[in-house]
Write a sequence for this structure.
């Protein structure tokens, strides 16, 4: 019996449905999910092939239409083995989708989820918490509580799939559906081997987690060292000086092709999105600023706090050449 459960909105999963009461009417089914009772509106499978902006499990979703605020859809969730599970769900966002409140066995799993977006896109995994579940049937409730002010008031809901990940360390290794993520959870060396390269090219792991996390930009300096910006704060700016974004320097000191030396150049940055090295320091894009962070001479750390350059493109085009010329003059021994 499997201890890893992935409940997907694909028609071949649970195709036979779940009988809650053999003596009473059989529950409705829609594209793999079993629906408890008869919810308001219409529940059906929707082909998502017309929306190229996202990727849905096997190209479809459960689509609930014709409902209104206050209405609720209840899905039957079969659990094959008692245990503690981390539960997540992948929904769909769209211009006419609702704000929903989810519940598991009648208990709210968190705050309402706003499914409005100008485009039609999957949400990605949304955590619903960790739950101890008995073997047998459980229920997932989807209640419509309203809609975003910008949304067309159609109050629609789309569900891609559910994931129940066992927290038991003895449980089998969990992976997301292979049709969407064929290389997820591979170890760094295995990921390198899985890459498809042109003839004559090779690839090896130079750095990997936990040495580097959340990388968003990188640049090489004239010594062959790799500078990496790690982004933790996006999309919300932290209070000044309390950000967690940072810049790390990786160096191959042995010539093996692997970075064996790791140095934190600076941390406590905010909304870092790009960097380049040169002219005595590091230039960092951190909206709405361009930052200049000078090196401390002879050391791999910053000399002083970043200079915040809040410049438009036109002013930057005039300012930057003068700044670089002044630096070159100082390097050459001339007065600025």
């Amino acid at each position: 019996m499997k201890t890893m459960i992935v409940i997907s909105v694909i028609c071949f999963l649970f195709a036979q449905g779940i009988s809650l009461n053999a003596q009473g009417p059989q529950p409705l089914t829609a594209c793999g999910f079993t629906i408890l009772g008869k919810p308001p509106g219409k529940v059906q499978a929707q082909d998502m092939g017309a929306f190229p902006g996202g990727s849905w499990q096997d190209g479809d979703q459960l689509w609930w239409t014709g409902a209104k605020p206050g209405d609720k859809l209840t899905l039957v969730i079969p659990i094959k083995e008692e245990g503690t599970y981390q539960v997540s769900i992948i929904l769909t966002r769209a211009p006419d989708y609702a704000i929903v409140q989810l519940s598991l066995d009648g208990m709210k799993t968190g705050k309402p989820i706003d499914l409005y977006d100008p485009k039609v896109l999957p949400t990605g995994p949304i955590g619903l918490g960790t739950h101890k579940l008995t073997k047998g049937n459980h229920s997932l409730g989807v209640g419509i509580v309203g809609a975003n002010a910008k949304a067309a008031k159609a109050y629609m809901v789309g569900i891609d799939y559910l994931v129940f990940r066992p927290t038991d360390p003895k449980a089998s290794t969990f992976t997301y559906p292979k049709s969407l993520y064929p290389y997820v959870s591979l170890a760094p060396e295995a990921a390198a081997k899985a890459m498809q390269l042109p003839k004559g090219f090779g690839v090896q792991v130079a750095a990997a987690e936990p040495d580097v996390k959340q990388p968003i930009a990188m640049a090489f300096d004239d010594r062959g060292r790799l500078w990496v910006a790690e982004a933790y704060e996006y999309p919300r700016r932290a209070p000044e000086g309390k950000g967690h974004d940072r810049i790390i320097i990786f160096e191959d000191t042995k010539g093996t092709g692997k970075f064996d030396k790791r140095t934190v150049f600076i941390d406590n940055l905010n909304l870092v999105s790009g960097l380049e090295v040169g002219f005595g320091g590091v230039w960092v894009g951190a909206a709405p600023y361009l930052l200049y962070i000078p090196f401390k001479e002879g050391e791999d750390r910053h000399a002083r706090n970043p200079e915040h350059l809040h410049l438009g493109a036109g002013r930057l085009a005039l300012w930057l050449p003068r700044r670089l010329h002044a630096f070159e003059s100082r390097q050459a021994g001339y007065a600025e």
In short: The helical segments are 188-194, 313-331. Residues 313-331 form the longest helix (19 residues). The first strand starts at residue 5 and ends at 8.
